[in-house]
Write a structure and sequence with these properties.
Helix content is 34%, strand content 31%. It has 303 residues and is an alpha+beta fold. The protein has an eight-stranded antiparallel β-sheet. Helix 2 runs antiparallel to helix 3 and helix 6 crosses helix 8. The radius of gyration is 27 Å and the shape is elongated.
Length: 303
């Protein structure tokens, strides 16, 4: 900086003497390195507290440059985020800062195989959020992933089966024996008389990460959630894959409540405490069905 240039944040006092919980920047674009060597475009939010009621403002360029160092120097692992939080707070010791916060949003692209067709694959995008906060000596780092899946309504399936049963009983009301060929012919013509409704659905799963870990369990979390649901959305498909997907939906009927419970049970078994939010984008209604559940102490993560 040129000597003699004014530094308002340092040289002037606040007009209104009040401390601030957070001050920083949102929407910072940066390339983010992952531990597998991939680089993804990300958006960052970064802030420190301003407890000194007389301080005019923080030094935002200091935070920006520290974020740039993270982007250039190391993968975004929990230990790297923890170190960055401490550097952020230390960079504002002259402001009395005691807390620091960081949020990173990006999409993880992964190739996923078709259900049954060999060698058939396609790309899926998983929105990811990494959030880290430092308060005094306490650090909390969370990983959140959003997963798309298909959900078929159990009530709709039961009503469809009832309608088919009634139609079959009406068409084969005669007391004579039923010929197998006639039944198969009837099924080919009438089995779609009523079909249960399905919809694209979304789950957001949050877990805590050990602050000293150098591993980001992105794929492990995604795989655990998709296995629990059984019906993750597909990419490239042929007819055999589409039929396999239909079979999976038929074998995994679920209300939004079922999906939330399945996910929490699976994620807690694999990763410990978690928060789960699910949304079924209804094909029957003009509104969505939603549910949320969290391990003890994680209720603040489900809204």
């Amino acid at each position: 900086m040129k000597p003699g240039l004014p530094d308002v944040a340092r040289e002037q006092a606040a007009d209104i003497a009040l401390p601030l919980d957070w001050v920083g920047m949102r929407g910072i674009a940066l390339p983010l390195r992952l531990e597998d060597g991939a680089t993804v475009p990300a958006q960052a939010e970064i802030a420190v507290d301003l407890p000194d009621p007389q301080a005019k403002g923080i030094h935002m360029s200091r935070l920006y440059l520290l974020l740039e160092e993270l982007s250039a120097r190391s993968p975004a692992t929990p230990v790297a985020l923890r170190n960055l939080l401490h550097q952020m707070r230390e960079s504002h010791a002259d402001c009395g800062s005691r807390a620091a916060a960081l949020r990173l949003d990006f999409d993880l692209l992964q190739r996923r195989p078709a259900l049954v067709t060999p060698e058939l694959q396609g790309w899926k995008s998983y929105p990811v959020t990494l959030a880290a906060e430092l308060h005094e000596a306490s650090t909390r780092i969370t990983l959140r992933v959003r997963i798309a899946y298909s959900s078929t309504c159990p009530c709709s399936a039961a009503l469809s089966r009832q309608a088919l049963q009634d139609a079959f009983a009406a068409d084969f009301a005669a007391p004579s024996g039923i010929d197998r060929a006639d039944v198969l012919d009837w099924m080919s013509r009438r089995a779609s008389l009523a079909t249960p409704h399905s919809q694209r659905s979304h789950a957001e799963i949050s877990i805590a990460l050990p602050e000293a870990s150098d591993h980001l369990p992105l794929l492990a979390l995604i795989d655990s959630a998709e296995a629990a649901l059984g019906t993750p959305v597909q990419t490239a498909v042929k007819r055999a894959d589409e039929q396999a997907f239909a079979l999976r939906n038929g074998a995994n009927l679920m209300y939004v409540e079922d999906a939330a419970r399945r996910l929490r049970q699976a994620i807690e078994a694999d990763f410990g405490a978690c928060a789960v939010r699910v949304s079924h984008v209804e094909s029957l209604h003009a509104h969505d069905a939603v549910a949320a559940t969290a391990s003890p102490g994680w209720q603040d993560q489900v809204r």
